Amino acid sequence: METDEETLSAGKRFKYFAKFHWRGFLIFLFPIIFLPLLFIQPANEMRCAYVVALMATFWICELIPLGVTSMIPIALFPLLGILDTETTVNAYFPNAILLFFGSLVVALAIEYSNLHKRIAYIVLQIVGAKLYRLHFSMLFITMFVSMWISNSAATAMMCPVIKGTLEEMSSNPAKKVHQDLYSIGTGSPSATPGAYCIYSPAASHSPRVRINLISLLTLANRYQR
Fold first, then answer.
1. What percent of the chain has pLDDT over 70?
2. Which end of the chain offers a freer environment for a tag, N or C, measured as fewer CB atoms within 10 Å?
3. Terminal-to-terminal C-alpha distance of the chain
4. Rounded to whole angstroms, how far apart are CA atoms 153 and 156?
5. Is the pLDDT of residue 149 over 50?
6. How many helices and strands in the chain, by DSSP H and E?
């Protein structure tokens, strides 16, 4: 018994092949179609027209990813003698763009490795939680970094650090301190492993007085830090 594959004619096989692999077929077809442009004078201008036509067809039909299509001149311009490699690449990646791209990579690496949180901890330990001190320290660090790289790159590098500092400041350590002091006030075990409190408040103390005392001690503890 003949299978379906054996009963298909050559035309139907080509039709199915073109249906699923038409992009690969056109990738090889379009360069051949525009090939006569390479032999028309003036040579340099027509070679450039060949690259432009090739990119336009690839871009419209989306034969390959658009990012790869945009990189075609990097390979074809030096190969066809239109421009040298250095001039072609500089049109894509000048020094300013490379510097900015490198700074973004460094910023992502800092955020990925959680280095920005470590820097935020150190900054908070050194300058404290005073807003004007934090503001001055961030300004000073950004000013020092911007002396060696561009302002945009310095901003990109400092964003994770400032983000980590804000996240650390937004955390509420007073909640844990409040719970620890409440444990001390009620005579239950404290937060320190193996330590038990020996003080229990007098029965005459109202809950409101106890809460005010705990709030005052918590506030004093935060300012001592």
1. 69
2. N
3. 88
4. 5
5. yes
6. 12, 0
DSSP 8-state code for residue 39: G
DSSP type of residue 193: T
State phi, psi for 114 to the nearest 5 degrees.
60, 25
- Cis bond upstream, residue 201 (ω within 30): no
* Alpha-carbon 155 to chain mean position: 14
Residues 218, 173 contacting (CB under 8 angstroms): no
Cβ neighbours, 10 Å, residue 181 = 20
CA atoms within 13 A on the CB side of 152: 8
User: Distance (Å, rounded) from C-alpha 207 to C-alpha 184?
Assistant: 14
Q: Per this entry, what is the length of the chain?
A: 225
Average pLDDT, the chain: 72
pTM value > 0.70: no
Q: Tens digit of pLDDT for each residue in 169-209?
A: 766 554 454 454 444 444 444 444 444 444 444 444 455 55
Domain ranges of the chain: 8-92, 96-170, 173-224
Q: Could you tell me which residue, 198 or 107, shows the higher pLDDT?
A: 107
